[in-house]
Amino acid sequence: MAAEIKFGTDGWRGVIAWDFTYENVRRLAQALADYINENAPSEDEGKSAKVFVGYDRRFMSDLFAADVASILRSNKIDVTLSECPVTTPMVSMLTLKKFWLGIMVTASHNPAQYNGIKVKLGGCSAPVRETKEIEQGIDENPVLFLYGQKADKKNLTDLYQKYLSSAANVKKIATLKGNIAVDYMYGSTAGWLEKILPSNKIVALHEEHDPTFNGLQPDPSLKNMAELKKVVLAKKALAGFAFDGDGDRFGLLDEKGNYVTPCLVAGVLLHHLAKDKKFKGKVVQTVSMGYLPKRIARAKGLGFEEVPVGFKHVAEVMNLEDVAFGVEEAGGYAWKGGASDRDGLLVALTWLEILATTKKKVSELCDEVAKEYGASVYLRRDLPASKPIDKATFEERLRKKLPKKIANFKVAEVSTLDGVKIYFENDEWLLVRPSGTEPLVRVYAEASTKKDTQALLDFGEKLVAQYIK
Question: What band does 386 get if pLDDT is binned at 50, 70 and 90?
């Protein structure tokens, strides 16, 4: 079935054998080949025009990736195909170090029946203007797939290992007393921490290769971390780390097995970078992120900006301006000094460095940030939508229905940057927006108490009721 191919918040995704088929992957691969041949730097410019194709551990990812690479090779493109499953952050890093463009076959955190393709350029996801150009080129030319045109295969994981090892103080981390429970969620981060740290520091879950993810969704969110919590408590671990299917998202449990929200993860990271590393520059976050980064930026004299959901929007600002720290609500974090793309393994190593340096527990670090910048209770509800939602109409209608006061909070500002976000007088907020990757309406809220956050979520759910029936 020749489905419409559209890039969402990060790449194109579809259900395997329904719309993510060989035919459609080849159509996109030809559009990518045309884009590369039109835009890649020439040898005269002194820059590499090479392309790297990677893939995760999903069902048939390696075969889809081989097809993409063969089509690029048929179009006379210098392409290298990975010999083994890799993480998306590795592909991003390679586009800074060795290749002009990277293509990653993955559906990230989506369930096992999905697969997808991400495009990386300059150390991060290709900007919207580039993916639009690729979309517009689909079906402009017939697929050129010449028999026997196979890409060179290489294992470049050593480059990524050096990158990670140089980004954190591994010797300091090795002094930690105790272990870390790690849920690899059957994804392509499996075994990576053991390559960098002493193996006795890691208690690993789900490191084996299972393309079905054993029926689980490889998403390091609260609902998927129950087993990790049991291991943290049973092994008396210092923390619990979790990664999504392609390794760009990171989830955290403290030493008590409590889930640490991305808002608090970001708060501790940014506080550390600003205070201990003396980072300067702007803080950039997606609209679905909490108020702690905003408050820390305000306290440390850093600039602040919100962008639409999707880390590619954060990365685009990072590539153009002096940005100290970038963050999204879905467990994605990046900062100056490396690739401007989220990297779960890099976040994990940085957290370990913080623990080793401060000699404090995860819960203590979170409590300190809450004490200094204010308590944060962030919650999200995902509401299945029974019909497609026109985003512009959705935003316009919702904005017209808003009262001046919601759940005893006075409305201070309303933004339609991405969905409808309502800001209240003391930084509390409520956001409702259709998902860019799934048939859902997401409702997000943050306040200083769980009761207030729940009240805001209840209002948001009522507000969008007509769209989810």
Answer: confident
Does residue 170 register a pLDDT over 80?
yes
Q: What is the mean pLDDT of residues 175-193?
A: 96
Cα–Cα dist 52/82, whole Å? 7
Instruction: Give me 30's structure tokens.
Output: 């030809």
Return the SS3 of 320: helix
Given a contact cutoff of 8 angstroms between Cβ atoms, the answer to whether 211 and 190 are in contact is no
* pTM (predicted TM-score): 0.93
CB atoms < 10 A from the CB of 114, how many? Answer: 23
DSSP structural state of residue 38 = H
**pLDDT, average across residues 219-243:** 97
Tokens 């962008």 belong to residue: 307
| Selected residue with higher pLDDT from 42 and 314 | 314
Residues 131, 467: Cα–Cα separation, whole Å: 29
Q: Which contiguous run of DSSP H or E holds residue 161? A: helix 157-167
The position carrying tokens 């904005």 is 399
Q: How far does CA 348 lie from the centroid of its chain? A: 14
pLDDT in tens, 274-310: 999 999 999 999 999 999 999 999 999 999 999 999 8
Q: Is the pLDDT of residue 437 over 90?
A: no
CA dist 343 → 114, 167, 216, 402 (Å): 21, 12, 22, 37
Q: Would you say residue 46 has pLDDT above 80?
A: no
Angle between helix axes 262-275 and 344-358 (nearest 10 degrees) is 60
SS (H, E, C) 53-85: EEECCCCCHHHHHHHHHHHHHHCCCCEEEECCC
C-beta separation of 303 from 297 below 8 A: yes
Angle between helices 128-136 and 22-39 (to 10 degrees): 120
Length of the chain: 469
Tokens of residue 97, six digits: 């170090």
Q: Which amino acid is at 292?
A: L
Q: Using DSSP bridges, classify how beta strands 303-307 and 323-328 pair: parallel, antiparallel or unpaired.
A: unpaired
What are residue 54's phi and psi, to 5 degrees? Answer: -120, 175
Q: Given this model, what pLDDT does residue 147 score?
A: 79
**Token output for 323:** 């940005």
- Backbone φ and ψ of 190, nearest 5°: -50, 125
